[in-house]
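Write out this protein's structure.
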Amino acid sequence: MITAAGITDRVYSEMRRGEEKHGPFHSQHEAYAILLEEVDEYWREVKRQTRIPGKLRDELIQIAAVAIRAACMDDA
């Protein structure tokens, strides 16, 4: 079963993964560009005729992780 706590755990894990792989954002412009890319990926999945189970959720988790990382920046 999908729960808010489970989703929150996945968002936090995605935040850590992104930070470890790419480091912190250098600017809000960079954060915006990455957020826009993630939203575009979500939109592509929304428009698919045949959806991959869980793919929309995965994209939404990535959007949330990027948004929270940007909100944690000093200049947010």
